Amino acid sequence: MSFLHVARRSTLVTASCRRLASTSGAPAAPTDASAAPKKKPAGQASIPQSSCPEGTLLKGFNYLKGQAPILAKADEDYPPWLWTILKPKEYPDDGPGGKAERVARKRERQQAIKDRNFMSTQ
């Protein structure tokens, strides 16, 4: 049994339990006020909506034979860093010769190499 198989098992159990618990596919409404969703403070950033609603069958994620299908979770169930993973990394401007300047020079050098290679093929 591989590490990935063990790591995925808890996700699969959660997904299969959720599928069995919801027969209509819609989430159940909270019955009392304590279970109602709470508003976040104004200073706290809100989590963006994902591209698929909770309970959506995610095709292509289940690549092992004989495994239960993978279902999307609620946005709150994913870690907060997941929503910022596609944002470009920002380096603090720490003066000449700093990290931001070195990264910018490297990016310019790489682009110059790509441009030179492209022009040599024309």
UniProtKB/TrEMBL annotation:
The keyword Acyltransferase does not apply. GO terms for cellular component: mitochondrial large ribosomal subunit. It comes from the Eukaryota. Keywords: Mitochondrion, Ribonucleoprotein, Ribosomal protein, Transit peptide. It holds the Pfam family Ribosomal_L37. It is found in: Mitochondrion. Residues 21-46 have a biased composition (Low complexity). Residues 19-51, 88-122 are annotated as: Disordered. InterPro entries: Ribosomal_mL54. Belongs to the mitochondrion-specific ribosomal protein mL54 family. This is Large ribosomal subunit protein mL54. It comes from Coprinellus micaceus.
